[in-house]
Design goal:
- The structure is a single chain.
- With about 290 residues, the chain is an alpha+beta fold.
- About 35% of the residues lie in helices and about 25% in strands.
- It is built from 12 helices and 14 strands.
- The radius of gyration is 19 Å and the shape is globular.
- This is Xanthine dehydrogenase family protein subunit M.
């Protein structure tokens, strides 16, 4: 199928994008990488009357470090980000998560910000942002605002973005040297959306105690969820099998999956328990 007719507009920076969004309102959609929007339009599941192409914007690209954070422009291509040495050193969880994000062809066009704004609760990048305690910079007619990742995602395919706001960039705290990271995912096949995914980052102090633990899961709630209860079980202690199993149980108890064609809620909850334990062990091994 082909999409219904639409008007095409091209923006050259974030300010012009906001102006166009304000002008056209809910009738407009942003075209970035197009890996989600174009299929939806072809199936007539999305019918925007105006497409605002932001591929020519110059102020929403780039990957850089700033004051202990990795700053990623919303228009950074996923494949570029996956291979960027600065990003890989600062946040090694990023290339690991991106390796599960679709296929190389998708990542060549797909954008970092596009995946976040699309807000699929099973997608890897939203779960990663939540795990890392990232912040998103949003621009609208009144200027910019900073939104914590856990507050950005409201429901499936729904974010805190107003109709005339654009996601400009995201900030992730740099992980300390020696942090182990892991991504564990259950999917029908590699590159598919996750049935359950778990992101983990673990750092141990000189006494072998966990002084940094970051855990999040995707595909098990209406949004990606930070597993605070599981983190609390591990923080400050030695990561033995007893504490790992307790953290995995806490994570499963905190998830609220639903039944669907890919699995029952109880199956997903069991997989959270399995994958959290596996991710923690892998993160420790990868330090």
């Amino acid at each position: 199928m082909k999409p219904p007719p639409f008007e095409y507009r091209s923006a050259h920076d974030s300010t012009e994008t906001v102006e166009l969004l304000t002008e056209y309102g809910d009738d407009a959609k942003i075209l970035a990488g197009g890996q989600s929007l174009v299929p939806l339009m072809n199936f007539r599941m999305a019918r925007p009357s105006v497409l605002i192409d932001i591929n020519q914007t110059q102020d929403m690209t780039g990957i850089r470090e700033d004051d202990g954070h990795l700053v990623i422009g919303a228009m950074a291509r996923q494949r570029v980000l996956e291979r960027d040495p600065t990003a890989g050193v600062a946040v090694p969880l990023l290339p690991a998560a991106l390796a599960h994000t679709g296929h190389t062809t998708n990542r060549n066009r797909g954008t970092f910000g596009g995946s976040l704004a699309h807000a699929d609760p099973a997608a890897e990048l939203p779960a990663l942002l939540v795990a890392m305690g990232g912040e998103l910079t949003v621009k609208g007619p009144s200027g910019t605002r900073i939104v914590p990742a856990e507050d950005f995602f409201l429901a499936p395919l729904t974010t805190t973005l107003a109709y005339n706001e654009i996601l400009v960039s995201a900030r992730l705290p740099r992980l300390p040297s020696g942090t182990g990271t892991a991504v564990e995912e259950l999917a029908r096949r590699h590159g598919d959306f996750a049935i359950v995914s778990v992101m983990a980052a673990v750092h141990l102090d000189s006494n072998g105690r966990a002084d940094l633990v970051r855990l999040a899961a995707g595909g098990v709630d209406s949004t990606p969820i930070r597993l605070h209860e599981a983190e609390s079980v591990l923080s400050g202690g030695t990561l033995d099998e007893t504490s790992i199993d307790a953290a995995a149980t806490a994570a499963a108890d905190a998830s609220h999956p639903v039944d669907d064609v890919h699995g029952t809620a109880s199956y997903r909850r069991d997989m959270v328990r399995v994958l959290v334990a596996r991710a923690i062990r892998s993160a420790i091994a990868n330090r």
